[in-house]
Amino acid sequence: MQRHEILGGNVQLYRRVDGGKWHCSTSVGGKQRRATTKQDSLALAKQDSLALAKQVAEDWYLGLRGKRHAGLLKSEKTFRQAADQFLREYEIITEGERSKRWTEGNAIRLRVHLLPFFGDLGLSEITAGKVQDYRVHRISTRMEPNPHSRSNRPLKDKLPARNTLHNETVTLRMVLRTAVNHGWLSHVPDISTPYRASAKVEHRAWFSPAEYKQLYMATGACAKAPFRDRFRWSAEQVHDYVLFMTITGLRPDEAVNLEHLDVEIVVDQETGQRILEIEVRGKRGVGFCKSMPNAVRPYERLLGRAKPVEVISRQRELGMRRTGEEIPTDAPTKSYPQPTDNVFPGNHINLFNSLLVREKLKLDRDGKARTTYSLRHTYICVRLMEGADVYAVARNCRTSVEMIQKYYAAHIKNMISAAAVNVRRAKLGGRRKALPVVFEDDL
């Protein structure tokens, strides 16, 4: 091995084999550091390669000292390195347990917001105060264009949603936890939001019984007389979708994955009524749901409704003639749903939203937009209003009692018993006289 020392022995130059590349090493900031000069003797004379290597090593050493004096030299892992490690292992470890959209959201939050602010900081420099500075930065720069964002939407003078900041904090916490797991950080600091320990309890958008009646009357009228005859199948599907979702309490993603083989019409042993037993596959994996009796009729209509027949338009027919394609002359035959077909094969969100807007039901009294998820919220609220046990509702909806009590039972007036609240203590007839005090000596 060939070795040379420069700058008074502060920098060592060496190469392991004759004709190989020169490397340099030094100790700066209490840590031994190495780098390659990328100089060898293959294309240059031996003396020239050594001289160039000395120049590169000297510049490298002086650059390290300048960074140390400016506070830019890190002797620990940075947040950027921890984030790279987190992204490499998170998707592999949680494969099949976390949705692809959530996994991609972590990468987006890191690229757009977290890495530009924390990326060059050492892991020990990320404290509760620094995280609070980040929250202030996010709110105060909301009207400034973000060069790391790929969105082309116009800027709005609107505060970041509480849930948006919460998700960014969750991603930040997971990166710090990754650093702890690899021994780069001793512990995760407390990065919870100060001054707002308990958030305001708000109910989720739902349809009151009167609003729900208005909705299904509107969908029923649209199914009988659609805007266009070619929309008849979609209008009928939307009507049965509204009824089915409000009677079963399924999540929208669970309804998308639902197949006819997952639904069975049975006679309940306890009530003697016909209900649906549904095997649900969605957010919580595989679960089960038992519907109310009036869910049977909408499902029977779904099961007996033929799929829409594809009609070749005049424009497409001309295009097929132009390209020489064969135009089918036989009349299309009707096909009915098979066991492996989806119960709701189409996406009718536009029609559903247009009906909400036309009936002035899109926004609730608090200005929250109603979506297909509001049908599930309606099921839970109506069940509580009619006296169903909260634990039974939680099991049937594949959620927790805590979630129902926090987001649904908090604003249901029927959950408060007037008889239990308006209790009055019976008044005694007259003032009670004090009993005489008896001492042991008087006995």
Write the layout of secondary structure elements.
Layout: E1 2-6, E2 11-15, E3 23-28, E4 31-36, H1 46-70, H2 79-93, H3 100-118, H4 128-140, H5 162-181, H6 209-224, H7 232-248, H8 252-257, E5 263-267, E6 274-282, E7 285-290, H9 296-304, H10 314-323, H11 349-358, H12 373-385, H13 390-396, H14 401-407, H15 418-421
Antiparallel strand pairs: 1-2, 2-3, 3-4, 5-6, 6-7
Walkthrough of the structure:
- Helices cover 43% and strands 9% of the residues.
- The protein is α+β, with helices and mostly antiparallel strands and 443 residues long.
- The protein has three domains: 2-70; 79-181, no CATH class; 209-321 and 335-416, Orthogonal Bundle (hpI Integrase, Chain A).
- A four-stranded antiparallel β-sheet has the order 1-2-3-4, covered by helices on one side. A three-stranded antiparallel β-sheet has the order 5-6-7.
- Helix 2 (79-93) runs antiparallel to helix 3 (100-118).
- It is flat and about 95 Å long.
- Residues 77-180 form the Core-binding (CB) domain.
- It comes from Zavarzinia aquatilis.
- One of its GO terms (biological process) is DNA integration.
What is the alpha-carbon Rg in Å?
35 Å
What is the level 1 CATH name of the largest domain? Mainly Alpha
Low-confidence stretches: none
Largest sheet: 4 strands, antiparallel
- Fraction of residues in helices? 40-55%
Q: What share of the residues does DSSP label as strand, in percent? A: 5-15%
Order of helices and strands: EEEEHHHHHHHHEEEHHHHHHH
What structural class do the secondary elements suggest?
A: alpha+beta
Number of helices: 15
Task: Domain count, please report it.
Answer: 3
Largest sheet: spatial strand order: 1-2-3-4
Say what the CATH topology of the largest domain is: hpI Integrase, Chain A
Strands, count: 7
* CATH homolog superfamily of the largest domain: Intergrase catalytic core
N- to C-terminal separation?
Answer: 110 Å
What is the 3D shape? Answer: flat
Q: Which CATH-level-2 architecture of the largest domain?
A: Orthogonal Bundle
